[in-house]
Amino acid sequence: MIKRKILIVLTLLLISTSGYSQYLTKEKALEDLKEFKTLLQNQSSYYQVSNFDFEKSYNEVERKINQEDSIPVYFLAFELEKIISNIIDRHASIRMENFEEDDYELLNLYLPFAVSSLGDNIVALNFNRTTKEYEYFDQAYPYLKAVDGIDIKDFLNKNAYTRKLSPKNAKQSDELKDLRDIGELYFKQGKITLKEIEITLTNGKTDKKLLLPMSNRRNWYFDIGSTNFNRDYRDFGRDENFELSKLDKWLIDSIAYIAIPSMLSYEETPNLEPYLSSTIEKYKDSKAMIIDIRGNGGGTREILNTLSGYFVQPEQSPWIANVAYVRSDQFLDEDISSMQSRFLYNYNSEMLSDKDRKAIDSFNENYETEYKVDVNKFSEPYYMVLHSKKPINYPIYILVNEECFSAASVFTSALKGLENVKIVGVTTNGSSGRSQKFYLKNSNIRVKLSTMLSFQRNGKTLDGNGTVPDIIIERDENQVLRKGDSQLEKLIEIIKN
Hints:
Elements: H1 2-18, E1 23-25, H2 26-42, H3 54-66, E2 70-72, H4 73-84, E3 93-96, E4 114-118, E5 121-128, E6 133-136, E7 143-147, E8 150-151, H5 152-159, H6 168-180, H7 182-188, E9 196-202, E10 207-213, E11 248-250, E12 255-259, H8 272-282, E13 288-292, H9 302-311, E14 319-326, H10 337-340, E15 345-346, H11 354-364, E16 382-386, E17 396-400, H12 407-415, E18 421-425, E19 435-439, E20 445-450, E21 452-455, E22 471-472, H13 477-480, H14 486-496
Parallel strand pairs: 12-13, 13-17, 17-18, 18-22
Antiparallel strand pairs: 1-2, 3-20, 4-5, 5-6, 7-8, 7-9, 9-10, 11-12, 14-16, 14-21, 15-16, 19-20
Helix pairs in contact: 2-3, 3-4, 8-9
């Protein structure tokens, strides 16, 4: 009996000490900072092409840590987040795996209204659950001018720093998601409690100040044009019984339409590949086809590989769609299978034909990357080569927005420049990096970094640039308020005319 009690006590002691503390000693925090620094130097791809003075930032964090005997884990996480925000890597992030957010009330308080952008302005909105549309929080003063007396653009530049190197449209969209979670922004400034915020609204001529209580509910903004928020498509990838036929339809004037809310893998959705092939065949007599990937957050490149066989014309095949370089001095063994799953192959790969290599040689004659690639830190280039298989001759319009991320941004950039393809909408978020996750020894802070440099056909990286459409169509007030999908409607008019 005594032995059993001792065993129980030891087990409980082991459980209580096996987790990670919410505080770190000075020494352990400095160890994690050093480990983080090494990770960036030896694992990150986009760190290598950054001009930021990282050493100065490391020294500043080290100075702050040395002033204390111990620090909260969240303090270290936020400091590392500030550093990592100076890399154009859109996949890079810092996350606390064992952090108890519910212990801090401020982290669960939000802006008391929804926010979106209309041109260069930020609008304050309320969602009408009856009409399923948005209304201005104050009809007479629709625009958000300041928060706690600070100009809204200055407030976002200072506090929503994790998004600062995104393309313009994506930066603004992501900043507004951070603004929605304003309690977290203030918590990162060192505040613990906050019940009210001062809001300044404007109509462009006169202002109106309000002192408003923080909300305990997230006030989401959902763009009516984003396919992943569409009621008809939102179960795509979530419900194994989702009817794929909901994704396609005839529009007016013999225009075909296909929505792709996510770049799902065929392993996840076995019926997806035959559906795509049969749908292309179904609309073979259409006047034009719209591929709508607005709001698509990415996934795999399998859909791109399938559809490109229809979109690439014989005279443009083989088509060099993407060029990438892998970190070659990593701690981990190089995971080349992860390149093959992205349809990226080195020049001498048996997966490429002599015709492919000839196309690569021709492409490289005038190809120059935005950044000089350090041969001591990166592999030889890998190429994604697309081929014409069953070409269709009607025009393809790919409708995109600033929420097109990862494999969706690759999809956009890979097809841009094909003679029968036009990219329409606004610049994509832009991101392609073969991300890996690492955990700091003492704090268990998760560090996510891209380990691949990925370039578009124009030589620019996807990260930090995105892909600029051939035809720009911004959202108008009607779409911002969810009264209608103006981007799609305007594209239909362009096709009709």
